[in-house]
Model the fold of this input.
Amino acid sequence: MKKGSIIFIIIFVLIIGYKSFFFVVDVTEYAIITQLGKPKKTITEPGLYFRLPFIQNIIFFSKKLMEYDAPPSEILTKDKKALVVDNYCRWKIIEPLKFYLSFRDVRSALARIDDIIYSEMRIELGKHDLIDVVSKNRNEIMKNVTIASKLKAKDFGIEIVDIRIKRADLPPENEKAVYARMKAERERIAKQYRSEGYEEAQKIRAKTEKERTIILAEAYRKVQEIKGETDAKVIKIYADAFSQDPEFYDFLKKLEVYENSFDNKTKLFLSTNSEIYKMLKSLK
Done:
């Protein structure tokens, strides 16, 4: 036999022997060594490990965080409304041996996770009305579901990290009735708001009208005060003028009377004894 063939056979035997006697565990994996179908050893740390070929087999499980997207399911709320819930969860294996003894593979584990989540979701949503689930308390509801599911899943070597609702819809046969009730409720609330707004507007108008009346009364009072003070000053001025020269004052007042009584078209027939005649005659 040629030397090259011998070397090839030796290398081939070494490769086969290496793969048969040794195996590598990645940092993202767990490994379980089974012997004749029974778990023999659990490996949680990465590295190179030895096994007995043909007698021992290696089963790997991921350490990574995995996501399970559950199919939509119908659940009843506290107010007896059917709700089609589409949820997902994030989970990981924390005890590989317990997980292996419970399920053997991930597919079986997903079926059990689905049962756990559906059960807890049905219990928790049964404590709340529809409006709480779709709007108000969804985060608190899912927090409670996550805690309860996590406790149950721990018995199988699984940690459920988080559960979330992607979508919550009404069954098609219930949508119209529920939407009609929601519309009526919104219209009732809108009517109440309009009524309260009208009442508040009336209060504001009454208050404004009262303030307007007070302002006008106060302004009128001040005008009358100013007018009275002005009249008093005018009377005083007249009185002072009269006291200084009564005849001249009397003369001016007569002129004012004549000025206001006559114009350039006025014709007078005067007696020679009248005051006007005497005054006009004196002006010549």
Summary: The mean pLDDT is 78. The two ends are 174 Å apart (CA to CA).
